[in-house]
Amino acid sequence: MNIDLDLHNRNVQKLKKDNRKFFTKLKKNAVKTIHSEINQLHYKVFEEIDCLSCANCCKTTPPIITDKDIVRISKHLRLKEGDFVQKYIILDSDGDYIFKTTPCVFLDRDNYCEIYDVRPKACREYPHTDANKVSLDLMHKNIKVCPAVYEMAEKLKKV
């Protein structure tokens, strides 16, 4: 499925209030099964949506970089950890390490990740909708970035 990010952004804006109300209500009434329902939707939606047709997360949202990520990626790039940090990493206002540039410096023209096998943990886990306990706040936030999360939320509303 090809992703039309302009259409996605219009839909997100149109449903902004509705989604805020939905997630507020969902959090208040969260039942134990909600996480497994979201997990199931995650797999269904990603059967239809190909991240390579979008890569909006890589274009708009710098991932949090852990110390383990720094070790793994710098080794892969054959850089000293200090050199890797100096060249690619900054400390954000929340005190987290993130990549200096957006879109991600490792995103190529075809939306492939040049460091895919050693990508940061945050990238491997994004959009975090297949976690054992899904953060509803994070899912709500990621609707803006990820068309797949938007689709999951719309399907969840019908459950």
Task: Provide a descriptive summary of the structure in words.
The protein is mainly alpha-helical. The chain folds into 2 domains: 5-58 and 127-157, no CATH class; 64-125, no CATH class. Helices cover 53% and strands 4% of the residues. The chain has 9 helices and 2 strands; from the N terminus they run ααααααββααα. It has helices at 5-14, 16-28, 34-48, 56-60, 67-77, 81-88, 121-125, 136-142, 147-157; strands at residues 89-91, 97-99. It has a two-stranded antiparallel ribbon. The two termini are 23 Å apart. The mean pLDDT is 93.
The unreliable regions are none
The overall average pLDDT, rounded, is 93
| H-E order | HHHHHHEEHHH
How many distinct helices? 9
Find the count of extended strands (DSSP E, 2+ residues).
2
Give the spatial strand order of the biggest sheet. Answer: 1-2
Portion in helices? 40-55%
| Distance between the ends | 23 Å
Outline type:
globular
Structural class: mainly alpha
Total number of domains: 2
Strand content: under 5%
Largest sheet: 2 strands, antiparallel
Radius of gyration: 17 Å
Short description:
This protein has 159 residues and is mainly α. The chain has helices spanning 5-14, 16-28, 34-48, 56-60, 67-77, 81-88, 121-125, 136-142, 147-157; strands at 89-91, 97-99. A two-stranded antiparallel sheet has the order 1-2.
From the structure above, extract its key features.
2 domains, 159 residues, mainly alpha, 9 helices
What is the element layout, followed by pairings?
Blueprint: H1 5-14, H2 16-28, H3 34-48, H4 56-60, H5 67-77, H6 81-88, E1 89-91, E2 97-99, H7 121-125, H8 136-142, H9 147-157
Antiparallel strand pairs: 1-2
